Sequence to fold (551 residues):
Amino acid sequence: MFNEKLTRLLNALGASCADIANCGGPDRTAVAHYLSGRRIPKAGGEASARLVEGIVQYTREHEKSDLLLCILADGQETDTIAEKNPEGVSISTKDISGDSNGELGESILRWLYATGDVPCDTQIDKDKKKKSDLSGSGGKFGTAREQIAKEFGRRFDAALRCAHLSNVALSRLINVDASLISRYRNGSRIPRANSEIIPMIGATVWQYVVKNSETVTIAGEIGISEDELNDTKFTNWLFEAVVRNAADISATEQLLRAFDQFGAPRLITDTEKKQKSGDLSGMNPDEDELNEKKDVYFGNKGLQKAVIRFLTRTIIEKVPEIWLYSDQDISWMTEGGFAARWAELMKRTVAAGTRIRIIHNINRNLQEMTSAITLWLPLYISGRIEPYYSARNTDPRFAHTLFVCPGHFAIEACNVRDNESVDTYHFYEEKSLVDTYSRQYETLLRGAETLVSFSDGTKKANDGSFTGSDTTNAAGDGAKTAETDRSKQYAGSAPERFPREMEGTDFQNIKIVIHEDSIEISPVSENWKIFRFSNPLMYRAFLAYEEHIKM
Fold:
């Protein structure tokens, strides 16, 4: 990658962002962006020309032209070296030892852009950046822990360079062994999330960043303005990967404990028997509400009444499926103790044979994903839920709710955000309108990805793992294949033994099987569906948890 080659070059030359800027290159904030990978200067453009000018001038002022020659020739000190890039452009010692800036500059550019990077002057899309952070630099990826260590090491190295601190100097300041600092810096080790060394390093390195007037460079690394930067934001940025890793492990463990609790043998209650039969006794449906022709409901109370009408009719009419999406605040569900009634109606809906397709609004955050799965787990057990998560950001101005029973009725609302509790909700039964909202939901689904898929668990492969053929994935085989490809891209290699059962846990009621591109959770005794997770973030978190329990 361009940023990795530039980092390698500047590290070898001993040049900081400020050094390149002072030698006629781009300002140090821009150089920091290039090093972090947030931007790639366009080859042949003004920005890349200034970068090369700064590098050339720095090597001449510090008498490091021979070192530059060696770097561009990949470290082979010989007069007959020639390196060919993917385009077949030869780089020889004659090219890079020329007298003019032009020849040397062209050689530097060929070396930097010989990675196949697509140069551009615009900021890299945030989603692509997140994926890059997860997947590493290409080739054969390491384990989840190695990827976290690599990300932390890159930031730690950048911070120490800005602080003008060597490994030995920092080790003396905080009274630890210099070899430990070296391992942090090269990405071979990370501190524990609750370690006392984190605030010590953060405070000390920040002090020297300020002392050496490198706050602009650090702000550029983080992607904020210098005015926004402070010691807390610096420390949070520096140890973000470490803290996120600990949070991911904790969220994964909580999710597995929820599965383990549901996997425990238990008696079927009278209430559950009624739910399985679709019996509505005890639900106290309001006949007037069920039979009314009201088109508009107001506020949270109104939405609650509309949902009762929607779900109760779903149960009575035994409709085949309903589709749910909402990105509004969930206060309508919790207000006045409505959550218990909503949960009861949902259980009876699936017990009556209705399939529920739901798009969770969780914005790819692992903690939100695991929380949503835990909340819906009692319904997931039925195997009649098709859960997805939205791959698009929500609208910060408007809140949307769309509940559809295709061919029958729908609830729809688009309200200014923060006004949902007093605004309007529409209940439609006219076929043309219900069809319109069905099409809208299908459009939303095309921008969503599978959160959990289920197998029936009736078939077993030769290795003993379940390979049920009725995997639930309404997005289709193409979407499933695409997601599998993404999982392989981000997941990492982990131990090369697939499938394998996760060992060393204290879970008694579930079995966790790790496949090359997914995780399976199955009950030891209960006869419910086999859960399969192929989301890249979740897959990485399961691998990190496996590594954690082996430590």
Notes: The chain has 24 helices and 15 strands. The longest helix spans residues 240-263.
